[in-house]
Amino acid sequence: MEVANEQTKTVSRSFTMKGGDGPLSYARNSSLQKGVVDATKEMIIQAIANTLDIDKLCSESSKTFQIADFGCSIGPNTFYAMQNIIESVDQKCHAKHGSSASIDLEFQVFFNDHTSNDFNTLFSSLPPSLPYFAAGVPGSFYGRLFPKSSIQIGHSSSALQWLSKVPEEVVDSSSPAWNKGSIYCTGTEKEVAKAFAAQFENDMETFLNARAEELASGGLMVLVMGGIPDGISLCQTSIGKFYDFFGSCLLNLAKKGLVTEEKVKSFNLPLYFPSTKELKAIIGRNGDFSIERSDEIIEKLKHVHALPDAQIYISQIRAGMEGLIKHHFGKEIAEEFFQSYAAKHVETGFVFTANACDNTLIFMILRRK
After folding, report:
1. How far, in Å, CA of 348 to CA of 276, rounded?
2. Sign of CA dihedral 273, 274, 279, 281
3. Helix, strand or coil for residue 363?
4. Beta carbons within 8 Å of 38's beta carbon, 6+ residues apart
5. How many CB atoms lie within 10 A of CB 305?
C-alpha cells in the first residue's frame, strides 16, 4: 500500500513564503498580493465607518486599540493593510467625537505567522515613524494566539485558502479520494473534492472558534481569500489552469528521471478555494459572528502574458512555492525545477486566462456577537 509519509501529510503546517529581501524573496515578489490589499482598501474604510462601534470597543479606562494580522508573511503588504485599518479607525473616531478624539487612542499591531516565518526581515523593514506599537506573534492561526476579548480588529488577506495540512485521504493510494491525477483539488473528482472541502471546513471552524475567543464583543474580523464562483470547478479557472501547467512541469522532472513518478503523484498543494456560499454556510454554523458585508471581486490576470511580465510572475510563483517544492522533492531539485518551469512557461507562451473563468476574491466583514 502506497501511503504518503507524515512529511507529505503535514507539509503546510510550517510552510511560509521565501524569506530574506533578495531578488527572489517574497518581500520583493508579492505585487499580486499587494493588489489584493489595494483592491479592498476602500471596502475596509467603508466597513469600519459603517459597522465599527468605537465607543463599545474603547472605554474611558482603556484607550488601546489592538489589531492582529493573521498570516502577515514577510512584508511589506501587511504594513499597507495595517495602515489602512488604522487610518480608517482614526477617521471613525474623528467623525464620531471630533479632531481630539483620536489623539488619545494608542494602536498596537500584532503580526502573526508560522514560527518559521522570517520575522527578522519583517521587523527590519518596518516603516519609520510608526503610528502603532508592533509585536510579532508566532504560531498557526488555526488555534488560539491571544487572550480572551483582547483584539478589536482581526485581519487576514490571501492566507486562509492555505489549509493546515493536505488531507490524508488524497495521498493514500488505497483511498477512493486518492488524487493521483493532479497536484490540487480540481473540483471534478467527487471524493477528492469532498476530502479537501472537509479539511477546509474543519480548518475554518478552528479558525473561527479561536477568533471568537480573542475578539472583543463587537470586534470586527476582515477576511480576504481566494475563491471561485458558485457552481464552477477550480480547474475551469485561471488559477486552476496554472496549477495544471505547474503539475505538468513536475511530471517533466519525472520523465527526466530526476524524481520518481510516485513522488509527483504524492505531491498535493495544501490549498482550497471555496465559493462565497460555501464560506457563508460555515460561518453560519459557527454562530459566533454576524456577516456585516460580503463581496466578490473578480481577480484579473489578463496583464500576465509573455515576457517581460511572465518573468515577473515566475519570480512571484517561486517566492510562494519554493518552500513546498524543497520540502517535498528536496532542496537539490528546486533550482532545476524552477529553471525548467520558467523555460516551459516562455516556450509555450502560457496565458493564464486562455479558455478559463476568472477567479474571485472573497471579501467579508464579520462582527463578533
Report:
1. 34
2. negative
3. strand
4. 80
5. 15
Distances (CA, A) of 153 to 34, 69, 114, 165, 291: 20, 9, 20, 27, 14
Which of residues 238 and 209 earns the better pLDDT score? 209
Pairing mode of beta strands 64-70, 151-157:
parallel
Task: Provide the grid cell at 73.
Answer: 508573511
Of 68, 220, 225, 212, whose CA–CA distance to 138 is shortest? 68
| Beta-carbon count within 10 A of 35 CB | 16
**Residue in this structure with the C-alpha cell 528521471, named with its chain if needed:** 257
∠ CA 173-338-11 to the nearest 5 degrees?
40
User: Which 8-state DSSP code applies to residue 175?
Assistant: S
Q: Report the C-alpha gap between 205 and 224 in whole angstroms.
A: 16
Q: Which residues, 6+ apart, have CB-to-CB distance to 190 below 8 Å? A: none
Cell reading at 144: 488560539
Residue type, 286: N
CA distance 279 to 230: 11
Pairing of strands 289-299, 359-368: antiparallel
CA-to-CA distance for 241 and 251, rounded, in angstroms?
Answer: 16
Q: Are strands 359-368 and 215-227 parallel, antiparallel or unpaired?
A: antiparallel
Please write the tens of the pLDDT for every residue from 201-237.
999 999 999 999 999 999 999 999 999 999 999 999 9
Q: How many CB atoms lie within 10 A of CB 306?
A: 12
Q: Residue 86 to residues 41, 43, 71, 113, 235: CA-CA distances in angstroms?
A: 12, 14, 18, 20, 38
> Cβ of 98: how many Cβ atoms within 10 Å?
9
Q: Within 10 A of 100 (CB to CB), how many other CB atoms are there?
A: 9
Distance CA 70, CA 349 (A): 36
* Residue 320 to residue 270: CA distance in whole angstroms: 13
- Confidence (pTM): 0.91
Q: What is the pLDDT of residue 354?
A: 65
